[in-house]
Design brief:
heterodimer; A: mainly alpha; MetI-like fold; 28 helices; about 70% helix; globular; B: alpha+beta; Rossmann fold; OB fold (Dihydrolipoamide Acetyltransferase, E2P); 11 helices; about 30% strand
């Protein structure tokens, strides 16, 4: 041992700082971290701040009404949205509708999904493996696919254009069945049932049968076991599914737009859209803020529930067992039930859409009525498109836009995701990793439509060196990228966590510098995560609607907004055909992503 | 390679947290096989990582010979990739996307070694470690023991002057561990590398090391040869941490129990010159049993006890005896001649007594007194104690 008089106190503060700086700046990690902090600060924090400022500042054109100068602070918009006579139409009615639709959807999807989850994970129902995948399909498709199918079937004279199938068959569906609350609720329920199946099914599968057995041995009957053992342990999963579905319904735009508009059934998302469309920026900011607030609160509740449920998970011992219940004489009916749900949520809507695009007169099944004109015909004598959708140049320009915009944004967010993961795990400065982790997750709490409103608020006009971006593809790319960051960064962080420090440090000790380590060790190992980080945002971006509907203009039309516009013009066949194409891309894309990353959708659930 | 010197090294992860390593002074000589030994969380891995440069210092200095490689005071930090050391991780950290050959080759490539030389070196190392037949496989296709060899081969390939090993054997099963221990010892002899080895396993440390540094709560407790550590533990922590079953500690505060009083009485009678003993440690293998007091050598410390349990461990036996409420463990290598419940006399020669003061530090003064006493008498020789 050495004795030498250099006590640590003698080393000055300055020396300490110099040493730390030397280490911190030795590698680009700190610089990249700083860059990411600035980038996401600008792409995520600033737009939302700008939106919130919009709600308390007098906007252009409102000087007289707000009785204040442009840009001054005002409560006018809050007053108008929440307390004025029009507040009922702007906010309270839509809020009530949003709540009732959401809770209706939650109730239905919990009861249907709960039963299906149990059948799939704990019984000997026929074809469980097949159903396990098939029943998830609705979640891979855009939710308003179902809305279009519903409209194709149930449409009545309230809306112009081609007649619905039932009407053509001689029965006119009443408004309450064709539009508004009932169909929206049913469709959202069908769309989010897979959510329940996944979350609840996972919890059930992880549930240790020995817990049940112990209760049985102590003399508990099946009912006691169900109520006192299984249900309490399943409660966190149930609650979590509830909150997540609610948060998703909150930002749901497409379904309510397609089915609510004809009878003026507004939800918060469509009311926000109307406010933006009628240039009421201030009120739109208040509405977007309200949606954001509700979204954040509900997801905070979820985070808390997940933490609670983790307490339970640790209880499980090693010998976890999963036992199946024999259904006996109910085996056939149970399978039939699962089949029925699959038919209603996948088969029927897709069949309807497909048939609608190849029938001249809706709902007539005579062979002479079928045609491929709407797909590939030319010189058609219809009032709408004069050629089949596949021959329309607008489709291909929308397709190209979609691939260009969504593709570029996805590649960016995939790379950013890995970078964020790297910095979060490696950054020598704790604050940087905490900030990045939280800020990239933040868009998850903000429904897409509110986020789009925030972007509109920030980028509509020129600000400093940044030109006005509205109408360009750039704003869409930036918004999409920011919107996808929660998934991309979560994938990146977990991939980097899983990799751990060791392989990189091993290379470092072996003599490899930072760049070398990135190229030969980190990136090759993370190839899979990178592909997933690009592909998953791509799929969810392709079927996304709420961001585009606010930020896209005809020249930056993507497939979703294109189909929505076709629908507005009542070119039902064309709209349906485009939605079918989107569905196909989303479905096969998801399958490809699963194969490539060897994961199940259950893990990457979210987008 | 010159010595590695750690001077007043401090490390804390958090400003308010207690130090992970505090004021560590250690010198690791050329060609030494140094074991950092201690319970988990004692700072031994942190120390190793600081030597490698993967962990920054909070205070102090690390030097290799005259060259300072890490020092806050001098503002020096040589990054890990320029320190030219080898580190084998507990998790092995093999690169999953590279074959065994590529894994082994990596460091040589970085050093721009010519191809022919590289191949020769890789072949040599792989052959020495018996992994040449796996050269085209990926790490996931190998067993734990094989992976461990690859991790070692990867570092040995570049022939580092210092090889750092972070609990490399803890993920192996008992048999493999024994094999790898022999292997490591052989490699140390063959390559002449300085090895710093982190372990919490005292047997590993005892069997492998040329010297052991025992750490506890971030501070160095004792540095010495394995025999030093075992036979002359510097304090109570070292005495209790090294040895299995653990050393028996008999408290020396008066009136505590029969065995306390008896041992105090014994020390006072035979070694009046010793003062300040706070506790007495007796290693299990140094305690003998006799069925009658007349069989006990006159100058031994002895006390009546009864046999509470006999635990066979294969080649030897652990016997638990009780003196009233005080439990003592002893080990014997022949089938015990006593049975459970029997009244016996346990006894021990003063030559094997470890005395600690109220700060739990070894009373080295007592060692000298006892050694003098034993040199004069005959019965305190180890052979005499064994005879009973």
């Amino acid at each position: 041992m050495i004795k030498e008089q250099v006590s640590p106190e003698e080393v000055g503060r300055w020396m300490r700082l110099r040493y730390r700086l030397k280490i911190g700046w030795r590698e680009p990690t700190a610089a990249i971290g700083l860059f990411l902090v600035l980038l996401f600060g600008y792409l995520i924090v600033v737009p939302i701040a700008s939106l919130l400022f919009d709600s308390v500042q007098v906007q252009f054109g409102d000087v007289r009404r707000a009785k204040a100068d442009l840009g001054e602070l005002t409560w006018y918009y809050f007053d108008r949205a929440l307390f004025s006579p029009v507040s009922k139409i702007l906010f309270w009615e839509p809020l009530r509708h949003t709540l009732s639709v959401s809770f209706g959807a939650i109730l239905v999807s919990l009861s249907v999904g709960g039963v299906l989850a149990w059948l799939l994970s704990r019984t000997d129902m026929f074809g469980r493996r097949w159903f396990a995948t098939a029943l998830i399909v609705p979640y891979m498709l855009p939710s308003w696919t179902f809305a279009l199918a519903w409209r194709t079937l149930f449409k009545n004279r309230t809306v112009g254009g081609q007649a619905g199938w039932f009407e053509n068959m001689g029965w006119t569906p009443p408004d309450w069945l064709a539009y508004g609350q009932l169909p929206i609720t049913i469709i959202l329920a069908l769309h989010y049932t897979p959510f329940v199946i996944l979350l609840f099914g996972n919890a059930l599968r992880r549930f240790d049968s020995q817990l049940e057995d112990s209760a049985r041995i102590l003399g508990a009957g099946p009912r006691t076991v169900a109520w006192q053992i299984i249900l309490p342990l399943m409660l966190p999963a149930l609650m979590s599914a509830t909150v997540l579905i609610f948060a998703k319904c909150l930002g749901e735009f497409g379904v309510s737009y397609v089915l609510g508009l004809p009878v003026n059934y507004d939800v918060l998302a469509t009311s926000l859209y109307r406010s933006i469309a009628s240039r009421q920026t201030g009120v739109a900011a208040v509405l977007a803020g309200a949606i954001m607030l509700i979204g954040i609160v509900s997801l905070l509740i979820d985070a808390r529930l997940v933490r609670e449920s983790r307490k339970f998970v640790t209880v499980g011992g090693k010998g976890s067992m999963n036992r199946q219940t024999a259904l006996g004489k109910f085996r056939m009916p149970a399978t039939a039930l699962a089949g029925l749900i699959f038919f209603l949520s996948v088969g029927l809507p897709l069949m309807t859409l497909l048939l609608s695009t190849i029938m001249q007169v809706p709902g007539q099944f005579a062979l002479s009525n079928f045609t491929l004109d709407y797909w590939i015909g030319s010189n058609l004598e219809t009032v709408g498109l004069s050629s089949g959708i596949l021959l329309s140049s607008e489709l291909w320009s929308a397709m190209w836009n979609t691939l260009r915009i969504v593709g570029f944004a996805s590649i960016c967010s995939g790379i950013m995701g890995i970078l964020v993961g790297y910095v979060v795990v490696r950054s020598p400065i704790k604050g940087v990793s905490i900030f990045l982790r939280q800020v990239t997750f933040f868009p998850y709490l903000v429904p897409g439509i509110a986020f789009a409103a925030a972007y509109l608020s920030l980028f509509a006009v020129e600000r400093g060196p940044i030109p006005a971006l509205y109408g360009t593809a750039a704003i869409l790319i930036l918004a999409l990228m920011a919107d996808q960051m929660p998934y991309a960064s979560r994938a990146g962080i977990s991939a980097m966590m899983q990799l751990g420090k060791d392989p990189e440090e091993a290379a470092q000790v072996a003599g490899a510098g930072w760049f070398r380590r990135m190229v030969t060790i980190v990136i090759p190992i993370q190839k899979g995560a990178l592909v997933a980080g690009v592909l998953l945002p791509f799929i969810s971006g392709i079927r996304g609607l709420s961001l585009f509907v606010i930020l896209a203009i005809p020249s930056t039309d993507v497939l979703t907004t294109f189909s929505l516009r076709l629908l507005d013009y009542n070119y039902t066949q064309a709209a349906n055909a485009v939605v079918l194409m989107i569905s196909a891309i989303a479905y096969f894309g998801t399958l490809a992503a699963q194969r490539l990353t060897k994961t199940n959708l259950a893990d990457g659930l979210g987008g | 390679m010159p010595n590695i010197t750690l001077k007043h090294v401090n490390k804390s992860y958090d400003k308010n947290a207690t130090n992970a390593v505090s004021d560590l002074n250690l010198e690791i000589g050329d060609g030494e096989f140094m074991c950092l030994l201690g319970p988990s969380g004692c700072g031994k891995t942190t120390t190793l990582r600081m030597i490698a440069g993967l962990e920054n210092l909070t205070g102090g200095e690390i030097a290799v010979g005259d060259r300072v490689i890490d020092s806050i005071g001098k503002g020096v930090f040589v990054p890990p990739e320029q320190r030219g050391m080898g580190l084998v991780f507990q998790s092995y950290a093999l690169w999953p996307h590279l074959t065994i050959e590529k894994n082994t080759d990596f460091g040589l490539r970085l050093r721009k070694v010519p191809k022919a030389e590289r191949e020769e070196r890789v072949n040599l190392v792989m052959k020495k470690l018996g992994i040449e037949q796996y050269r085209d496989r990926y790490p996931s296709q190998l067993s734990g023991g094989q992976q461990q060899r690859v991790a070692l081969a990867r570092m040995l390939a570049v022939n580092p002057e210092v090889l750092l090993l972070d609990e490399p054997l803890s993920n192996l099963d008992a048999r493999l561990r024994l094999e790898m221990r022999t292997e490591l010892k052989r490699i140390h002899g063959e390559f002449g590398t300085t090895i710093v080895f982190v372990t919490h396993d005292q047997w590993e440390a005892m069997t492998l090391a040329t010297s052991i540094a025992v750490m506890h709560d971030g501070t160095l407790q004792q540095v010495g040869t394995p025999n030093d550590i075992y036979d002359r533990p510097a304090n109570r922590f070292v005495a209790e941490f090294v040895g299995s079953p653990p050393i028996n500690i008999i408290d020396q505060s008066p009136g505590n129990s029969r065995i306390t009083d008896a041992s105090r009485q014994y020390l006072k009678e035979y070694f009046p010159a010793i003062s300040g003993a706070d506790s007495l440690g007796l290693r299990p293998e140094n305690i003998k049993l006799a069925s009658q007091i007349s069989d006990v050598p006159a100058d031994h410390f002895a006390e009546e006890a009864f046999v509470a349990a006999i635990l066979p461990t294969g080649g030897s036996w652990i016997i638990e005896v009780m003196v009233d409420d005080h439990k003592l463990f002893l080990t014997v290598n022949e089938p015990p001649q006593v049975s459970v419940g029997q009244q016996v006399w346990f006894h021990t020669s003063p030559a094997f007594m470890h005395l600690f003061d109220s700060d739990d530090q070894r009373l080295t003064a007592a060692d000298d007194v006892i050694a003098e006493f034993c040199a004069a008498g005959e019965s305190c020789a180890p052979s005499a104690a064994k005879a009973s």
